[in-house]
Amino acid sequence: MKGRIYTFSNLLRAVMLALCTVLTGTLYAQSSSQTDNPLTAGDTLVDRVMPKPVPDSMYVVTDYTEIHFRLDKSDLDISYMNNGLALMRLERVIDSIGIDRIKEIEVVSQSSPEGPYERNVKLTQERSKVMVNYMYRVFPDLKEKITVNKITEAWENLCQYVEKDPNLEEETKEKILNIIRSDELSLATKKSQLKNSLGENPKTGDVYKYLTTYYYPVIRNSGLYILHLVSPSEMKPETPFIEESEPTPSDITYQEPQIIPDEPERVRPILAVKTNLLYDAFFTKDMGWAPIYNIELEYYPTEKGRWTWLLEYEFPWHSIPSKHQYLQMLNLQIEGRRYFKENSHHSGHYLSAYIGANYYDFCFDKQYGHGYQGEGGGFGLGYGYVLPLGKNPDTRWKLELFIKAGVYLSLYDPYDAGNPFAGKYYYDWNLDPDKFIKRNNLYERYHITGGGITISYDLIRKKVKNKSGF
């Protein structure tokens, strides 16, 4: 049975990736009408088999797959460029090789050379982490064979594209290459000169804009090198040998992919609406299903910040007088959250602090009608974990698990049904009625004050312009 489930899962993944590939391929075909575009149509994959002799009559063969990232992004987007096709092919290659025969998978990530170097380093690390997590999830048996390397800024790849570009004049090429390969210029100076001193070219117009439109998106990537062992009988006679002990990205002859410019706008969440599934499923013996109606609103002040603000409202109002069953409450809480990880898109672990107040009327005593009515308030801390639902980084749906603990204080009165019950309840007070003081009982609680499983949906989003990214 396990084998059947695994096979069906692989089949479903392949179908979804193939569908994504067809859709993205259609978009690229519609955007490839420019005759001056130096990038020929084709995959964004870089394929080259690079064997070398090793002991015991075996050969190490390297297969290479490349995944691209949007401007200033580290999220895995299968709808971008030909990422869907690349991932489908990667899974097919690994399945055909066999996990036991794979020696190593090296993840090499890089960014386009623009913007602050520190930001590029962080992007490179995040892109590698995204690809490693993807491999862990899809191929958990390869976990011990995955290594990470990084280039950070892809200066050499940019040189390769410039050298082969038929639309750039030789003088322009030489100027670009001299800037990039200069040992006397700092990184910041190189970036400034590329941006401000290249001028225009007859076929391309603004040279820097041309580079950032057609080449920079290609070199924002993570490459996956697959090293595996094969016997001599499995090698093709025409496969060339190389002497290098380890392949590097500079050893790869890049195919020139067809691309489209980055989108000028994207959307970011502003407000999410939530409901606690445990409260929604509340059940008692005599009342049956009695959901604690609840709604939460979470406000995201910034797209990638750690802080968010929540407003929670609970309003169950159930009653069965014939059985002395009452679940009635109005509860309002305000909460501030701080997520552990920056740029997490408000997911992962978080800590919170809250304050709230409520009014309630509870009675579940079928025999005597003994219940409680009062008002209260409290404050405390919470911990939770938020998990996006689905692989799409722009998903609107999230699942959350949380628990809260703190202080709750309430002034209340107990009450009882009359005997026989005539439809009225009486305060539980046996002394002089003139001395009765309403809400004269104090309830204190210093422990768990809440918890649940929440599902949320990003209700409001807005379009924002892409910032200068890498």
Give the structure's gist in a few sentences.
The protein has 470 residues and is an alpha+beta fold.
Explain what this protein looks like in three dimensions.
With 470 residues, the chain is α+β, with helices and mostly antiparallel strands. The protein has 8 helices and 19 strands. It has 2 domains: 250 residues, OmpA-like domain (60s Ribosomal Protein L30, Chain: A); 201 residues, Porin. An 8-stranded antiparallel beta barrel has the order 8-11-12-14-15-16-17-19. Strands 1-2-7-3-4 form a 5-stranded mixed sheet. A two-stranded antiparallel sheet has the order 5-6. A hairpin with a 4-residue loop joins strand 13 and strand 14.
Give the tags:
470 residues, alpha+beta, 60s Ribosomal Protein L30, Chain: A, Porin, eight-stranded antiparallel beta barrel, disordered N terminus
Structural class: alpha+beta
Rg, please? 31 Å
The helix count comes to 8
* Helical proportion, percent range: 10-25%
Low-confidence stretches: 1-6, 23-57, 238-264
Mean pLDDT: 80
Number of domains: 2
Q: Distance between termini?
A: 46 Å
Give a quick account of the main beta sheet: strands, pairing sense, barrel closure: 8 strands, antiparallel, barrel
CATH topology tier name of the largest domain: 60s Ribosomal Protein L30, Chain: A
Q: Strand order, main sheet: write it out.
A: 8-11-12-14-15-16-17-19
Topology record:
Elements: H1 2-30, E1 52-54, E2 58-68, H2 83-97, E3 102-111, H3 117-138, E4 146-153, H4 155-164, H5 170-180, H6 187-196, E5 200-201, E6 205-206, H7 207-214, E7 221-230, E8 265-276, H8 277-280, E9 283-284, E10 288-289, E11 294-299, E12 307-314, E13 317-320, E14 325-339, E15 348-364, E16 371-388, E17 397-417, E18 425-427, E19 441-465
Parallel strand pairs: 3-4
Antiparallel strand pairs: 1-2, 2-7, 3-7, 5-6, 8-11, 8-19, 9-10, 11-12, 12-14, 13-14, 14-15, 15-16, 16-17, 17-18, 17-19
